[in-house]
UniProtKB/TrEMBL annotation:
It comes from the Bacteria. InterPro entries: CheY-like_superfamily (IPR011006), OmpR/PhoB-type_DNA-bd (IPR001867), Sig_transdc_resp-reg_receiver (IPR001789), WalR-like (IPR039420), WH-like_DNA-bd_sf (IPR036388). SMART domains: REC, Trans_reg_C. The modification 4-aspartylphosphate is found at D51. PANTHER family: REGULATOR OF RPOS (PTHR48111), RESPONSE REGULATOR PROTEIN CARR (PTHR48111:SF37). Keywords: DNA-binding, Phosphoprotein, Transcription, Transcription regulation, Two-component regulatory system. GO terms for molecular function: phosphorelay response regulator activity; transcription cis-regulatory region binding. This is DNA-binding response regulator.
Length: 224
């Protein structure tokens, strides 16, 4: 999952980024509103953490621009402001949730997970596709009730597919959501990890759509 962290306080931005990276997220940083507006417009993010008190262009203006341009990524607003009318302004501008500073990182993580789940149409913290189940709280995937042993990259890829079960996901989309900008982005790497996952999963669970990408599909008759 790829997350944009927009925060001008360098120490807090780095703390959030490290915490998210430790949980397996790919993180991009922006320290002012204009940079945030640009990045949110050119990169598809699974979620955005947005501070309101930004230099150059304030967070509310950034958010309004994104929404007016059709950017639909879920946005969690972070701010030291705690007056009710400012919270209302953030929600009206297009925020999906609101978290006042100071905050506990575990609450931030929980709200972020919820945003990403809801964006994919999932209400529960437990996501399933046939014999697979992903517990988003503990970041564990099980197969027929048994823990599935995966490398970090295998987990990221399979978790993304579970979040988008039944949907066609292109190699480009997987690459953009699973790898940092400074990493070499090679679609052949995705094919390698898909091959490794197939050896650990029941046959046919990951479908290849030739020339287009992959689809995680529950077997006929199995629950999604």
């Amino acid at each position: 999952m790829r997350v944009l962290v927009v925060e001008d306080e360098a120490a807090l931005a780095e703390q959030i980024a490290r915490t998210l990276q430790d949980r397996g997220y790919v993180v991009d940083l922006a320290s002012d509103g204009r940079e945030a507006w640009y990045q949110g417009g050119v990169q598809d993010y699974d979620a955005i953490l947005l501070d309101l008190g930004l230099p150059v262009l304030d967070g509310l203006s950034v958010l309004r621009r994104w929404r007016s341009e059709g950017m639909s990524s879920p946005v969690l607003v972070l701010t030291a402001r705690d007056q009710w009318h400012e919270k209302v302004a953030g929600i009206d501008a297009g925020a999906d949730d609101y978290l006042s500073k100071p905050f506990h990182m575990e609450e931030l993580l929980a709200r972020l997970r919820a945003l990403i789940r809801r964006a994919g149409g999932h209400a529960s913290a437990l996501l399933s596709c046939g014999p697979l189940e992903l517990d988003t709280r503990s970041a564990r995937i099980s197969l027929q009730g048994q823990p599935l042993l995966l490398t970090a990259q295998e987990f990221k890829l399979l978790a993304y597919l579970i979040h988008h079960a039944g949907q066609l996901v292109s190699r480009t989309e997987l690459t953009e959501h699973l790898y940092a900008q400074d990493c070499e982005r090679d679609s052949n790497t995705i094919e390698v990890f898909i091959g490794r996952l197939r050896k650990k999963l029941p046959a046919g669970l990951i479908e290849t759509v030739r020339g287009m990408g992959y689809r995680l599909q529950a077997p006929d008759g199995a629950e999604r």
